[in-house]
């Protein structure tokens, strides 16, 4: 399986929309866009 990396959150959302559009309405698909690396990844949020 090929992994793709988006350069921004907006690009990741657009790639997800394109993926869902390709599969059409006959599929019941849910997707999540998650940050997997970067300066804030893995850090707990301050309370």
Description:
This protein is mainly α and 47 residues long. It has one domain (1-35). The termini are far apart. The protein is 32% helix and 0% strand.
Structure keywords:
47 residues, mainly alpha, 1 helix
Can you tell me the number of structural domains?
1
Structural class call reads: mainly alpha
- Mean pLDDT across the residues is 78
**Overall number of strands:** 0
Portion of residues within helices:
25-40%
Helix-strand layout with pairing:
Layout lengths: L8 H15 L24
Concise overview:
The protein is an all-alpha fold.
